[in-house]
């Protein structure tokens, strides 16, 4: 009986796993050199933890399950609530700033599309305990450190940055009520994907007053921070948020990544818990979904029962990133195929156990080695050695009666006879 | 509102993550040097895939869920069915033997106990396409290569080995019907954990004939392969299985790991799909649950709709292993704490942006570097450098007006002034 895999999930055959490892290992290495420490949480949590503060979009996409006691659980669709829970739990003993990263496996019950699957991996980096926009800048730098490391340039990608704090201040000053902000964010977040008429129709459902709607549309058409500055002249809170945004761009300049970054008031983010700077990373041609996005969520830890501690972070998925790297031809250039140090060929059945013994000794010494399961002809085994990408091939044949083996360099084809003991003592001295 | 984590799951704070990474990275490195390639499957599959061939024990422990179309899914409790599915899917293009490994995250709805959690990681290595017991030996070697690498010795651990093929042949020869074998295996697998009277009572429920029961009890008391040999003299199929078991031990001798291994007829394994050699790895003192176990499952690929292809493999969990390493004092000796290459201290607020710029330049050069978020006194920042385990501390102060920085070696305390450009060009030449 044949059972298929579930739609929207992936099977990682060894070549796919090589790509996933290339991406994930890079995330880990860059996080560490940027001073972040790795953490992880469970794959499932109590359902209500994800329903509390993330907003409707993500709640609709939850895979929920029950444990045997009937408790409602869900597979994690994001790791930020887990992060908030974990940090709150040890808040008194963790030295701040807390700089943590994780590479969680996440699941969302979405309709599978290009770059959007029901199961994916997401690089998360977060700084907790810093109010200063410097922390937002450092997180953005870290993402760009990685994206540059995999050879993406300002020709390939762009970080579009805005501020929820600024947006909130302006919307409040226009006369939108605080409780109307969250549903409005959800609509503004989708604006880029909607035809202008549809957007205006949906906006009319949420904002009855036409003059307010006009102001919102005017605001969302602003293209530079300067245009916003004119707009907010008279609102102190909005002015403060604009100044913060300006400072962020100065810091990104200091960090050497400004050419990747630009202001875009259209960036609002789908998650409900953002409170300050928000941003999304896109391919420059805007042909793909967002590679990732993040922002500041200063209230979340408190909402999860902890003290009021500021926080900012980003999430980068593996799906769109892999598509972009593939399309730019950057994967094949950087993927290294696994190499065996030694392939051990044996041309005499009687000596097969010696081939096994030598292989195992090489492995115990830390070297990648394989024997051939078939003691067939030498040329077949050499083919296998070359197929397995072996650097060297050890040949065990007639000379073994003198306790000697032939070692063939697979790149040059050079071959030399050497005593077994001498061979291993040479290896050891290396 | 505070929400706890789900019982039986783990939060991996950075120190816990260091242990998990030490274990998982070791599994990966040893797999690769033993010639295995990495694969992975989805975290959930169709529920029925796990109900088909794994046996009752694991079916009772499934975390099941539904997707939005109402399809029944389950979080994977083991990866072998996924492996069978994936291999069957590409069976015509995969060169054999297929030597694959994986480190899946698995979930089982069990009652949490010491060494047994509801979510865990399991190292899986499998060889597909080899009938010869040599493949079983290679899998066992690979496990022992790892366990020796983390410094466990024959004083610490033992691999207890038996054969389902042998057990089946003997039970059939005693007169047990083929369809009674599977429920009988489940009982025999639990025998070691039951008082003898309880075992005999339960056995009486499954085997009505007293003389058969006596033979089974006599068989299960055998301590060596020799004692079994006497037992099976007249049954050809059993004799063949005993010979195979003997050959396995010879190969383990050739591979240099025989002193870790011994015959134990009590090893039956809980999973239903085993067909040949079976084994479990235990701490020598037998104080913990099994570290792992495996065996041959020659029929599984066929049962999953593929061709008849032999297979053998093992699974090692992270929970018991971590407890054992901890108890033996082997963790602290081998865990390396993460190190920063440079901590950048800045004692003049006006120069802070320079500190940031230098830090980011170090990171872009591949070095682990951090700046201090607080430009407080130097002694405080040096303390932070030492707390963050920095090898060197760069001090940006008065001399920066001459474009110079002080570089302090944190282990020797030596400090030298150097021009910024010279410092970076020296780094580059390294």
Q: Number of DSSP strands of chain A?
A: 17
Say which CATH homologous superfamily of the largest domain in chain A is assigned: Bira Bifunctional Protein, Domain 2
> Biggest interface, which chains?
A-B, 90 and 90 residues
Cα gyration radius of chain A (Å): 28 Å
Average pLDDT rating of chain A: 94
* Count of all domains of chain A: 2
Largest sheet of chain A: 9 strands, mixed
Q: Which range does the strand content of chain A fall in?
A: 15-25%
Low-confidence stretches of chain A: none
What name does CATH use for the topology of the largest domain in chain A?
BirA Bifunctional Protein, domain 2
Task: Write the CATH architecture name of the largest domain in chain A.
Answer: 2-Layer Sandwich
Number of helices of chain A: 17
Q: Report the helical percentage of chain A.
A: 40-55%
The oligomeric state is homodimer
Under CATH at level 1, the class of the largest domain in chain A stands as Alpha Beta
* Separation, N- and C-terminal Cα atoms of chain A: 52 Å
* Structural class based on helices, strands and sheet pairing of chain A: alpha+beta
Based on CA inertia axes, which overall geometry of chain A fits? elongated
